[in-house]
Design goal:
four-stranded antiparallel β-sheet, alpha+beta
Amino acid sequence: MFPPMLLYVRVGTLERPGFGMWLPLFLVWLILLPLVALVLVITIVADVVLFLVGQSYHHYTLLLFGSFGLLGATRGTVVTIRSAENVIDINLV
């Protein structure tokens, strides 16, 4: 499952639709890719060390993969905020 690639934000009023703006999240994921790779290596090393020492919890890598799955599940989320005069729509594509 892939994380959201675009964020669409539309701000307007109840009478007029207003303006929308696309924000490219895929550029953020490209910047964060080296950091994610480093964290993955650290969690694998931590899991191996904790397993060899005999600790009861040594599943940090599974926690990291679960977090990535949760991030991928946010794709398709639509949030609408309405006040007395304003409407804000946020879509994760």
